[in-house]
Amino acid sequence: MAVTTVYSFLRLAAFFVFALNVSFSTAVKHEGFKTCDQSGFCKRNRAFADAVASSSTTSPYRISPESATFANGQFRATVLKTIADGLTVHLPLNVTFLKSGLARVTLDEERRRTGDIELRHGSKARKERYNESPAWALVGGLDIDFSAQLGEHGNSDVTAIRYGDNQRNEAFIRHDPFSIYFQRDGETQVTFNQRGFLNIEHWRPKVEVEVEEGVEKPVTAEDESTWWEESFGGNTDTKPKGPESVALDVSFPGYEHVFGIPEHTGPLSLRETRGGSQDAFTDPYRMYNSDVFEYELNSPMTLYGSIPFMQAHRKGSSVGILWLNAAETWVDITKKKGTKSKVDTDTHWISESGILDVFVFLGPRPEDLTKALGDLTGQTQLPQTFSIGYHQCRWNYMSDEEVKEVDAKFDRHGIPYDVIWLDLEYTDDRKYFTVDSDKFHNPAAMHAQLDERHRKLVTLIDPHIKNTANYPVVDQLKEKDLTIKNKDGVTYEGWCWPGSSHWIDCFDPKARAWWKTLFKPDFFKFSTYNTYIWNDMNEPSVFNGPETTMPKDNLHHGDWEHRDVHNINGMTFVNATYHALLDRKPGKPIRPFVLTRSFYAGSQRLGAMWTGDNLAEWGHLEASLPMILSLNIAGMPSSGADVGGFFGTPSSELLTRWFQAGAFYPFFRAHAHIDTRRREPYVAGPPYTGIMAQAIRLRYQLLPVWYTAYHEASVDNSPILRPQYYVHPEDEAGFSMDDQFYVGSTGLLSKPVTKEGAATVDVYFADDEIYYDYFDYTIYSKKGFRTVDAPLDKIPLFARGGHIIPRKDRPRRSSHLMQWDPITLVIFLGKSGDAEGTLYVDDGETFDYQSGAQIFSKFVFDGVSSTLTSQDIAPKGSLTDSYRKTMAPVRVEKVIIIGAPAHWADKKHISAEQGKEKMQPKLQFHPASGNKAAWAVVRDPKVSIAKEWKIRFA
Length: 954
Ligand SMILES: *[C@@H]1O[C@H](CO)[C@@H](O)[C@H](O)[C@H]1NC(C)=O
Ligand SMILES: *[C@@H]1O[C@H](CO)[C@@H](O)[C@H](O)[C@H]1NC(C)=O
Known about the structure:
By secondary structure, the chain is of the alpha+beta class. It has three domains: 36-364, Sandwich (Immunoglobulin-like), CATH 2.60.40.1760; 385-698, TIM Barrel; 822-954, Immunoglobulin-like. 19% of the residues lie in helices and 26% in strands. It is built from 17 helices and 51 strands. The strands form nine sheets. Strands 6, 7, 8, 9, 10, 11, 14, 16, 19 and 20 form a ten-stranded antiparallel beta sheet that branches. Strands 1, 2, 3, 4, 5, 15, 17, 18 and 21 form a nine-stranded antiparallel beta sheet that branches. An eight-stranded parallel beta sheet has the order 31-30-29-28-24-23-22-32. α13 (652-662) runs parallel beside α14. The longest helix is centred in the middle third of the chain and has 23 residues, at 562-584. Bound molecules: 2-acetamido-2-deoxy-beta-D-glucopyranose (NAG) (2 copies). One 2-acetamido-2-deoxy-beta-D-glucopyranose (NAG) binds at residues 136, 509, 512, 571-572, 575, 579, 602.
């Protein structure tokens, strides 16, 4: 939720309305957020880049030759920055080569590192450049490649180092001026400081110039106006450390497309931000986690979360970088004609503070990048099964009676759902961990009804804690001194939903430990073990703060300035909640579910995110797809947008189309603003309700597909939704497509309708493989665009030949009730007559899968022998056998073969076997008709999913 209309304001203190200068139009308040020009360090670095580009001066950075060493997979040296008067600044450089084939470059500043500086205003802040981002964002992948070795280079000014798989990668470190070129297979893929934009703003004392009457200020070469203090929107940043930005140009020669750096609303293939083509932006892409009210489409403006990972792609190669910095960051992108009529993409990364810390990925396949990023920042949490079902949310269900009523209506209309949500208003006066007992008279009865139907409750808990009397949570927070502090080291006070508030500082281990105590059911009395948590407003949103967030000179645990940790802050809060849920129940731990709005690289380990406060407009439905795809390829696959749009009231058509699209979001939740008309899927009536119900049922039918895709993401962080370029990395025509996508590795291709009144969509098929309409088996077998019918009741969904997908076809009220349901396998035969697929199953709740309590099967249909086999590919553990026993009754009840060979028409029975059991199930053949494929059904082959089996069609 964000700050919004008059209605909600009336309920806040009157002076607060005044302070916010609220707008009533539905448009983002540009004046509330900085442009590059208004952000001192961004402006300075753009100006620096322009000066370098327009002059013949070379970069003032060089490696001091005597300092350079290479040993044990690491190149170390001191980079000297020449400043005025022949003085130099010392910048320790590490270039570390990792076993994963990645290279890591860090550049620090000697004087700040050793604390040999003075802060202004008597600040208590740490003097070093912030270097703890890795501690929060990274979990591994840092093993050093000790076999990296010096290579040959004719120029003694260049150190060459070969590394990675078969030493196919090579880094060329030029000493003067300092730059690095990264090659793979002898070809340059990524360059650092090729354009000379490297800029480490070194520490310097402020020279106070006394302004005398009639005497002119001394003229300095640099514009100092934003070095020492900056004001924006009535807030002043005291900047006790002075200017300290880090910036670097990174080029991708021969790469026309770059993707990533979520969260933004523009296209998946990132646009130019300076000069360039007509649709170029004028500002760089910005990453500064913010509560952006009524955000606009097609914009490089910052949003709620950031992942500073960028991938560059061309035919045959994907490479990328992770810019590990948690401060406000801007990225300029320009493209130019390179050699051999190829396009080069040049980028310019600018962060306000911290050390320079960059990982270089040389691919070459898109999945090599996602895997390496997962090894560094962690894998996607394997969620509980319920959380991949459908979620019903609204600001707000106002009472326990209302929750029960909504719950009952879903059942009355035969619409499955798993989770109902309570936004802010369930609390007593916006005090988290309390409940408004005037509205919730009998929570126990409400919980009992939900439990009975195996549904869950999610409630909102935010990081701002109401500053009020008689509220034990705020008393403890202050007593234990666990708050974020202002620049003077005193508990920071600002405004958010509850009015005056304080913020918990989850960088502090003591704060995380205390946070756990609040979730125990004897403290959070409204909750049960079936209550899960939504962390909103964790950028953090501060209504009266600069750019609706915290002052940058606020202080965190360890005396780090908020400026240094801003983009990571929201993740540490979610992490505290995750661990609180993990520990709340005695006995066997249950997987937590936490939804967050703010995120950073690493947040995928902790739960799901959603794209914040969107609008009930067709453009927002359309924009949700590239946004979610961008998150998926940047390591945060568990994502979704508010179905229906948060602000405003969608038409029934828009809502219906949104449910059809939302059924393909990894995280599938409808939500609505408090001022909007009710819009649960049963409200619209015929034909809409029926169509929305069908979309939700399709989601439930495909839960085995979604859970298997989540499993893959939990192993190597692979995207759950995959853009065209990711699945077809050689097909240039698809590189910029972001309105259709594949689900995991299943070959299911979805193209949601996002245009009002559309009755058709143009689907792109990237190759000559057979694609089948998922519902009626119409065949599409030619590469290129095809216009397909998409009336309101039709979801354009296709299956690429060569895949086998698992389904559960019995309609149920919730996912829990499907747990023992039999599986239907659908085989979409490819041109070769073969097909493959996987199914992952576990208890969907505990961590037993880590001890082998899982089923992971690979299905292979071999066209030559006409045999379908189920192979056990699960890792085994102590719980494997007992788990398999409990799962023995779960069987395959049906096998559907699409594209079945015509000669099967004569078959009535086929043979199946599992262990010693031999069966002769019936085969029913349906001949091809028109352009619809032939298909065959095997009914009840009597094979359990718990063990390997075989079905012979020959
Ligand atoms: C550079 O490497 C050295 C030795 O491995 C290490 O002590 C130092 O912390 C590294 N610097 C940075 C900024 O990571
Ligand atoms: C999460 O919390 C755990 C336990 O307190 C801690 O070890 C870890 O560093 C935290 N990670 C993040 C990202 O906050």
